[in-house]
Amino acid sequence: MQNFRAEHLGSGRKAEHWPKPSLPEYAFIGRSNVGKSSLVNMLVGINKLARVSNTPGRTRNVEHFKVEPATSRAAEKGLGMAWMLADLPGYGFAKVSRDERAAWKTMIDTYLLERENLQCVFVLVDVRLEPQKNDLEMIQWLGEHQVPFVIAFTKSDKLSQPQVVSNVALFKRVLKKTWQTLPTLFITSSETRKGREELLEYIANINAGWRG
Ligand code: GTP
Ligand code: MG
Q1: This model's pTM is above 0.85
Q2: Whether the CB of 154 sits within 6 Å of ligand 1
Q3: How far is CA 43 from CA 5, 40, 116, 126, 180, in A?
């Protein structure tokens, strides 16, 4: 297993508060409570890096983290350089005012369209749920704006393997209605660490092409 060192670089709502875009960056987006912060912690292998909470809507700002290899093992696997993660506030939380929702949209649009070092957005989807309108809208928006993204299904430990397979198949069928080629899909669990190696390999490949 790779070991990393990580640090919280900052928390901000506006571009001028975000860290300098000097390293390749990966963002985690998805419905409130889908497991974004947990996945960040699972990937990096540090439990309390990003704040995990049972109260939905806890992450309000863009939370930036810098990740660096802590062992030569990480370096061997193509993760020898530093990179950044952005934990984004979730959408779809009912108890949010219209003003807050509008502020979220402005911030997220700015981030996704203007963050120049953004390499890929991981759209997290709760594998237990039927395809949700707001997830599909997010995916549609990313596609229309040509923001590179992949889908990471979360909480796969909460279902049996056949249920996971059937829910992912349903999601694919819905995507196929609008997409000719499907985005890359990952099945993950922050509990069992399923998908960790695959996601890290994906990140390593992109990092390898970074010319900052
Ligand atoms: P917001 O920041 O509020 O939008 O939520 P989030 O998407 O960051 O979710 P968070 O990581 O805080 O997790 C929400 C809840 O789901 C917590 O109680 C986590 O422990 C739980 N959880 C997250 N991922 C998994 C998973 O893979 N498996 C299981 N069983 N629980 C998970
Ligand atoms: Mg969070």
Answers
A1: yes
A2: yes
A3: 12, 5, 23, 17, 30
Is the CB of 57 within 6 Å of ligand 1? yes
21 compared with 76, residue with greater pLDDT: 21
Pocket of ligand 1 contains residue 2 by CB under 6 Å: no
Residue 211 φ then ψ, to 5°: -120, 80
Q: Which atom of ligand 1 is nearest to the CA of 190?
A: 27
The encoded tokens of residue 211 equal 């010319």
Which tokens is 150 given?
A: 């992949």
pLDDT of 75-123, one tens digit each?
666 678 999 999 999 888 777 788 888 888 999 999 999 999 999 999 9
| Four-CA torsion 58, 167, 182, 78, nearest 10 degrees | 60
